[in-house]
Amino acid sequence: MFWHNFKYTLKVVLRDHALIFWTFAFPLILATFFFLAFSNITSSESLDIIDLAVVDNEAWKDNQIFRPALQELSNESSDDQLFNTKYVSRAEAEQLLESDEIAAYLLLEESAQDTQSPASPPVPAIFASKSNIDSTIVQSVVESIAEQASIITTILQENPAALKDLAKAEKANIVDQSSSNLDYVMIEYYTLIAMICLYGGIIGMVAVNQLLADMSMSGRRIAISPARKSTLVFAALCASYLIQLVAVALLFLFLIFVLHVDFGTHLPLIILLTLIGSLAGLALGVLLATTIKSTANTKVGLILAITMFGCFLAGMMGITMKYLVDTNLPLLNRLNPANLITDGLYSLYYYDTFDRYWGNIITLVIISLVMISISVYSLRKEQYDRL
Fold this sequence. Notes:
This protein is mainly alpha-helical.
C-alpha cells in the first residue's frame, strides 16, 4: 500500500502543470533576474582611491602617529591602499581643493604640536570643499587613528609593559579569517533558496488534499476504505519530499554551474540546512491543508502569501528589511522559517563559527515538529457527517 500511494502521489503532483512551474521553473527564472540585476553591483559600488593632500610643515614631519599611519594607507604597492597623498604647502593645498583635484587636505597646526598633552596627541584639522563619501571616509580614518593613538598613549603612561604583552598577543593570535569573497548580494540568493524550500508546502498540500474526503474523490474512497491512513499519509509526504528535494537540487546546480554563485566551503552543511528547510516547508503545507477548511486554490494562495512575506522579512526585496526586523522585532524573524534558512546560510558564509548556524537548525526542527504534530492531531480529529 505504501509504494502504491507513493507512486500515485508522484503522478498526481507531476501532472499539475501550475505546481511544476512554481516549484521548478519560477525559482530558476527569478535566479536569472537576480543575476542580471546584481551581477555588477558590487564592483560598481567599490571604493576608489581617494586623492588627499597634507600640509607638509614641521609639525607634520615631527608627528610620530599620523605621519606613519598615513604613509601606510598611501602605500601604492599595498592591496589596502586607501589614499593617494600629496605633500604640499598650505597655499598649494587650498588651490588643489578649489580645483577639486583632492577630496580634502589635512593640516597639523604648529601650536597644536607645542601645546599637546601626553594623553591627547594632536589631531590634524580636515579641510574639504563639500560633504560627500570621500570626505566622510577621511574624517573617519583621522578619528580612528586619533582614538587608537590615545589608547596607546594612555597604556604607555600607566603600564608600559602591558603594551609589549599586547603586541606579542596580537602577533601570535590575530589571524585574518574573513571570507575572501564577501558579497552582501548573496543574501538575495539565500532568500531564493529559502523560498524554494518553503514552496515544498504547496507540494505537500496537494498530496494531502488527495487524502482528505472533503477535498477530492480519492479522499472519499480512502475515508471508507480499510487502508491505514497513517501509511497513506506517510507515503504521500515521502513522495512530496522527494519532489521538493529534486527542485532544490536543480536550483543549486543552476546557481553553481550556470550562474557561478560561490556558496563557500561548507557545502555539506548547506545541504543539511536545505534538507531541514524543505521539511519545514512541507510541514507548513500539511498544516494548512489539514487545518484550513477552504478550497485548494485558497490554500495555495495562502502558502504563497506566507512564503513571500517571510522572504520579504528575510531580505529578498532588500537586505535593509532583514536588518530592521532583526533590530526591532527579533522574535518575528526567529519564528520565520524563511529567515532561519537565510540566516543559516548567511552565518556559514560570513562567520567562522557555527553557533548561529546550529541555532537556526534547531529552531527549524522544533517549528517543523510543532507543525507536524498539529497536523497529525487535526487528521485524527477529522470527521464527516456524510460523504
